[in-house]
Amino acid sequence: MNGTICAIPGDGIGHEVIPAAVAVLQHVAPDLRVEWAEGGYETWRRTGDALPERTLRLAREADATLFGAVSSPLQPTPGYQSAILLLRRTLDLYACVRPVRGLAVSGQRSAVSNGQHDTVGHSPLPRTGEGSGVRAVPTDLIIVRENTEGLYGGGEESDGERAVARRVITRAASTRIARLAFDMARRLGRRRVTIVHKATVLPQTDGLFREAAFAVARDYPEIVADEALVDSAAMRLAGRPESFDVIVTTNLFGDILSDIAVIHGGGLGLAPSANIGEAAAVFEPVHGSAPDIAGRGVANPLASILAGAMLLDHLGRHAEAITVRDAVAATLAGPVRTPDLGGAATTKEVAEAISYQLSAISFCSPTDSTDKKQTFQELTADS
Ligand code: NAI
Ligand code: MG
Description:
Layout: E1 4-10, H1 14-28, E2 33-36, H2 41-47, H3 53-61, E3 64-69, H4 83-90, E4 95-101, E5 140-146, E6 156-158, E7 163-165, H5 171-187, E8 192-197, H6 205-217, E9 224-229, H7 230-239, E10 246-249, H8 251-262, E11 272-276, E12 281-285, H9 302-314, H10 318-332, H11 347-363
Parallel strand pairs: 1-2, 1-3, 3-12, 5-10, 8-9, 8-10
Antiparallel strand pairs: 4-5, 4-11, 6-7, 11-12
This protein binds 1,4-dihydronicotinamide adenine dinucleotide and magnesium ion.
């Protein structure tokens, strides 16, 4: 597989965090070719096109795309469409994959840490000892969200007094997303896939999703397939994230559950995600363009850097992906942190700390943190 990536900073802090992430990618994989492209609200204001033809072509032709974030106006704005939604739709990126791992942040106590779990289980992050000020949490799950239909794909109508949203679920899309989730679970050595729905009150739409997902599950006898209603899943996810392994669900439920899960991974500043299709893949931080801090140079680049690690896995470059995650873990164990993680460092200082760790890792012998369970190895090998 060759290595051309398309980098789209987008709006706001995208212009701060994506260059930092691309610098990391170029550090560990100097042969990667990077094509920069524009898109987003500012691009639309300037050119009338949120996703210019050139950007779409580069994203389609690249082996993978790294995307920052785009701003969307709160009021309906005639002619404007979100560049990331356009990308997902045009490239048919039908799966949104969000891994959530309890990242150990020096001096920060996780919301779910209770002292009973001192290690990160299968995480490639360093184990942390008593008194180190580093507390790890047991969360280690992956949320697989259907990205093309549900309440986001059916359209809305309103006469001003009554508004209706259509929720479209198809057997084809449900089967496709369940197949990706179970395939991924198999490849990554995961033991359980939980099908999350609300078929009790949505027997037609979620009944169909549930039925299609359990039909797929029959082809994976070694993986436990169970189910949870979305409301109880939300409560469990908030309080006992370690009770989940892989979750597969519909579009809106996946959107909400993913944001709950992000809390256990150290917050938005540390949360990466992947949008996967048959012929293209776009990796991005979960966060948005953060207009409240944009331009101040204090955005946390780690979510984008971890999205870059997922991208490397997608390219089959697992060793480099592990190196990047190790550098992030080592940096988090130290004092250099942006304000969202309780520090006072700038984006640039965190990027420099990562670069220092990368140099240290390549100078020392490779670490033994090669736990394949945590890589996105072959995630899309058949795609
Ligand atoms: P947001 O994720 O941009 O910001 C939420 C809060 O988290 C803000 O206080 C922000 O300062 C902070 N934050 C986010 N990322 C951070 C980082 N890397 N480092 C430090 N702090 C960080 O979400 P919000 O405010 O709801 O939306 C802002 C804009 O972003 C909106 O126009 C929204 O439509 C857009 N958005 C775009 C997304 C995308 O492109 N995929 C996803 C979510 C929102
Ligand atoms: Mg969201």
